[in-house]
Amino acid sequence: MWDRFLRACRREPVDATPVWFMRQAGRYMAEYRAIRANHTLLEICKQPELALEVTLQPIKKLGVDAAILFADILLPLEPMGAPFEFAAGEGPVIHKPVRSAADIEALRICQPEEGLGYVLDAIRLIRRELDGKTPLIGFAGAPFTLASYLIEGGKSSHYARTKKLMYQEPKVWHSLMHKLSEVVRLYLRAQVQAGAQCVQLFDSWVGALSPLDYVAFIQPHVSHILKDLETTGVPVIHFGTDTATLLELQRDAGGTVIGVDWRTPLDQAIQRLGDGVAVQGNLDPLLLDAPRELLSARVDDILTRVGGRNGHVFNLGHGILPETPVDACKFVVDYVHERTAR
Ligand code: CP3
Prior knowledge:
The protein is of the alpha/beta class. It is built from 16 helices and nine strands. The strands form two sheets. The protein has a seven-stranded parallel β-sheet. The chain is globular and about 55 Å long. The structure holds coproporphyrinogen III (CP3). Coproporphyrinogen III binds next to β3.
């Protein structure tokens, strides 16, 4: 069934549990590395033909039930006025990190068609190719996760500058959150309009915050995005990691599917989240590198915890890592389908 992913997101019965993997296009695949040998990551994102090709690689190779647009959460930073690059071995580098009230004042609330038209073109192209075969997921980064890159200038372990701004200058912090949430809201809406059949909000690093700070500094802004997106009618996946203490707050902020990382047993997450949302998750990505017997036991455990309830999208608890064996990914897709065939 081509739409079992969308049906599971809507908590409807499915013929088998749908599977896709966060970061399913990437360096663990030889086909991706072959394209990367000749193009930078940003070139792939900015040329719709290349983005299409890379988006389709895991569909062809693994038989996953959803495609995720090939792009990156950082792309909107450039038209906002904060250009960056992906430096080899270092990850993202923001050329001029945003740290003062004046820096934040200078950031633009860009219209998606202006600086991100290439993403919308890629979506239209991919939809034409996949129509009626595999649903397409669009995505964006959430305000805290984007702010952490903007302020720290790259990846960070303690988010020290980010939290300093949040705690010491709450007004300035909220003005940054307001700009980011408006950019992300418009961008995701434009993705849906261009043809994305589902969108995922990646709040990958929000688990660095306590529940109290999540409520005070983050939740209203995430809610601004998600409540608006819910009115488009497409499923909205709300994802974060290290969120064991935040799940109910994330659900209240919005989203029709809640992404759960591997630290929380999925039956507990389902019980805490209640019947109003679907869940996505939650295999530890490193189990893909474990002996096959342990891998299948952990997949079984997740499926047992779900217990055949409607509203489960099988995924990892976070993205695939570069050293992951492709055959293990393929094994999980087939195994979940076989085990859950109804
Ligand atoms: O899931 C997919 O297949 C779609 C493509 C996708 C990419 N990035 C491409 C990419 C998605 C959904 C993302 C999201 C993303 N990007 C997140 C949130 C998801 C998560 O994993 O938490 C974050 C935090 C980023 C920011 C980012 N982009 C970082 C930190 C890095 C460097 C990581 C590294 O391992 O070097 C990137 C680069 C990036 N984005 C790659 C890919 C496939 C690395 C591959 C390459 O250099 O070719």
